[in-house]
Specification:
CATH class of the largest domain: Alpha Beta
Low-confidence stretches: none
Number of helices: 14
CATH superfamily of the largest domain: Response regulator
CATH topology of the largest domain: Rossmann fold
Number of domains: 2
Shape: globular
Mean pLDDT: 96
């Protein structure tokens, strides 16, 4: 029987974020071991579910020691890295030999002891299993792919959609190539190239025509060559101050040829030529409020996306500038998800439903940078923050955002949570008995993933940059480790 190890270790690290990715951060989102992995991922639109389904169809014997994922933040603590590695190594020791390893990774993990988290993990696994066992992984479209990752893995395939709604399909694709490799049909090799860019290909956006969709079409056309197994385009994660941050091209080929590197270089040059093209248009809080007030309300809500405080990119989730603007603009029939503030959430729970509360809301993670918002509101709902996603992205996955309350502040229903989370599904509102379709204005802490679930119901979408940790003002940040010169930090 073919024997396969399946594991996941994810983190998108924003090195400018002061919150560490410690054990509590992983427990707050996903830290599953052994049978918990299958129980939490079966029947979901995720890579792990795809691996499990493919293995069952093929009759593979599988072990799944761990899946760990934390909301993006600062670097991963070494004890977390060691814990995950130990679980994987223990599984190998107890169950070897294995024929293959299937990994669900992000590709932009920075740890406190190494800036190449995935490369380090692959090195640990490869060091134990040797060079002959097939090691394959899925990657996020925003991976910062290093040379070491490419050297140590046989197969690396990133998502092709942003929002990421193809995770399951990419998982099946990776597993399919592993099967072919095990059958001796192919000998996969990974080649990666990157250019002098910190950001590019429209930051990976695929919801409209632009540089990323054009590059993906070019990549797909190259698959007609029999020795090209996959061509991946990664937009990179620019909020990571590491040497290899930025867009890259991954070629997975059947065997090594000089032409494969040249092909990747050619695609990188295309990304470079279009580096200035962007469909991302943000505006200040004040300008956003003027635009909202100018709209004639209809049966579809206006969506305000708090781009610069996106927990899905390492934002704190407690920046109150957009909320303050909405309150001062006296917006009515609005809802906001979510402000991360466990102290305020617990205070609301203690006072109970219907209570009028005075809160010093948000701005607690980095008081020197952000300020709190003194508000008076009414507690409208209290939930445990447990629900399953229903939208296109990761449908079926169980989510826990911790104790959550709805506080009515003026004409705005504000979700206050005890855990950080990006809002990319309508269930964030619905689980708290808020129907987004019945609101005139919906605000979300998200940069782009929200579009999967909210764009179909939106009258208009406005991206708001209030200057938070995930703002695109790269030139205002102090990069010390990234290779130089690099666009847009340096003049070209």
């Amino acid at each position: 029987m073919t024997k396969v190890l399946i594991a996941g270790f994810k983190h998108e690290t924003n090195t400018f974020c002061s919150l560490p990715a410690d054990m509590n951060a992983y427990r707050a989102r996903a830290l599953y071991q052994e049978g918990e992995v299958r129980g939490n991922f079966l029947n979901t639109r995720t890579e792990i579910a795809a691996f499990l389904d493919f293995a069952k169809t093929e009759g593979w014997g599988i072990r799944h020691p761990i899946h760990a994922n934390a909301t993006p933040s600062g670097p991963v603590k070494k004890d977390v890295f060691d814990f995950v590695c130990d679980r994987i190594l223990d599984c190998i020791c107890d169950n070897e030999p294995f024929d293959a390893v299937l990994l669900c990774l992000h590709g932009a993990m920075v740890c406190e002891h190494t800036e190449d988290g995935e490369g380090e993990l692959l090195g640990v696994i490869r060091g134990r299993l040797g060079p002959d066992v097939i090691v394959a992984a899925t990657l996020d479209l925003h991976a910062n792919v290093t040379d070491r990752m490419a050297e140590l893995a046989d197969i690396l395939i990133p998502y092709r959609t942003y929002p990421h709604i193809d995770q399951y399909e990419v998982g099946l694709e990776v597993a399919g190539l592993v099967k072919r490799a095990l059958n001796g049909e192919i000998k996969p090799v990974v080649t990666v190239r990157r250019g002098s860019m910190l950001d590019g290909v429209d930051h990976g956006r695929t919801t409209m025509p632009g540089p990323m969709t054009e590059m993906l079409k070019r990549a797909a056309d190259l698959l007609s060559s029999p020795d090209i197994l996959n061509v991946g385009i990664c937009a990179g994660f620019p909020w990571a101050d590491i040497h290899d941050a930025g867009p890259s091209v991954i070629v997975v080929s059947d065997g090594v040829k000089a032409a494969h590197g040249a092909l990747a270089e050619l695609l990188v040059q295309d990304i470079w030529y279009k580096r200035q093209i962007s469909t991302i248009q943000t505006m200040s809080v004040d300008d956003a409020m003027l635009q909202v007030k100018a709209f004639v309300y209809s049966n579809k809500p206006i969506i305000l996306a708090d781009f610069s405080d996106n927990p899905g990119g390492g934002g704190y989730g407690d920046d109150i500038r957009l909320l303050r603007g909405m309150v001062e603009a006296n917006l009515q029939n609005a809802a906001f998800a979510a402000i991360y503030d466990p102290v305020s959430a617990n205070l609301c729970v203690e006072n109970g439903l219907g209570a009028i509360v005075h809160l010093s809301l948000g701005g607690n993670t980095d008081p020197e940078r952000d300020e709190s918002f003194e508000v008076r509101g009414t507690v409208k709902a209290v939930t445990d923050g447990l629900f399953r996603l229903e939208g296109p992205m990761m449908s079926g996955l169980r989510v826990n955002i911790g104790t959550t309350v709805v506080v009515s502040i003026g004409g705005i229903d504000v979700l206050v949570t005890s855990s950080r989370s990006q809002v990319y599904d309508q269930m964030y509102f619905k689980h708290a008995r808020i129907d987004p379709l019945l609101k005139s204005v919906i605000a979300v802490k998200s940069a782009h993933h929200f579009r999967a679930a909210f764009q179909p119901i939106a009258k208009e979408i406005i991206l708001v940059d209030g200057g938070g940790v995930t703002s695109r003002n790269y030139c205002e940040r102090e990069y010390k480790r990234v290779r130089r010169p690099i666009f847009p930090l340096d003049i070209f």
